[in-house]
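From the shared-data thread, chain only:
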Amino acid sequence: MGEVSRNLADESNRKMMLFRSWLFVLWLYGSMVVMGLVWLPALLLPRRVTILGIRIWAHLARWGMRVICGATTEIRGKDHLTSEPVLVASKHQSTIDTLMPFIYLKDPCIILKKELLWYPFFGWYALKAEMIAIDRAGSTKALKAMNAQAKKAASQGRSILIFPEGTRIEPGVPGNYKPGIALMYKDLGLECLPVALNTGFFWPPKGVPRYPGHMVIEFQPMIETGLQRKAFMKELETRLETASERLVAEGKAARAEAGTPVE
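Structure, as C-alpha cells:
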C-alpha cells in the first residue's frame, strides 16, 4: 500500500511540475509579446532604452522561474568582475544564460546565432541593441567580421559575451571549445571572465519541463591579457570545467532536495 501511495504522490508531483512548466512558458513568451509591444517606441530611441527593456524582461524571466517553477538564481563571484569592458566566456546550458547577462553586466554585447534575428520581437530588439549575429559554420572572413564588430562594441565600453562551446550543452557533458574565442581574446586585448553554471538542471537545453531547485551562475577568476593561444585555451577550459564539475554535483543535489532527482 505504501508503494502505491508513493507512486501516486510521484505522479501527482510530476503533473504539477509539468503544469507549472507550461505556465512558465506562457509567462515567458506572453511577457515577451507584451514587453515587445509596449517597448516598440524604443526602436526609435537611443540604444540604451532597448537594453533597459531587455533587462526588464530578463528580470521577469528570473521572477517566473522563482515564483512559478520554484527555481531560485544565485550569482556568485561578483568580486571577480571588477571593471568593464571584459570578454565574458560563459558555459551554455539554457536559454536563461542569454538573459542573465543583462542583469549582471552593464551593457552586454552578446554573440548570437544569426537565425535568432528572424524571431519576432527578439530579433528586432537584438538588432537595435547591436548584438553580434554570426553564422556558426562561418568562414575565417566571418570570424574577422565578428571581431571587428566586437572591437567597436568594446570601444564603447561594452563587455562582449561569447559562448565558446557554440551551442547549449547538457550539464555534465565536457565542453568542445571553438577556436573563435581565442581569436577574439587576442584581437580585443581584454581580460577574460570565465562563467560556469548549472542552469541546465532546472531549465534544460530542450523540452518544456522546468524544475525547482537552485540555479548557480559563478564568475571565475579573471584571465589576464597577453597569453598565447594554447595557454589561454588551456586556462579557460581548466577554469570552466573544474568549476562546472563542482556545480554539476551541486545541481544534482538541489534537484534531489526539491524532489525531482536527475535520472
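The radius of gyration is 19 Å.
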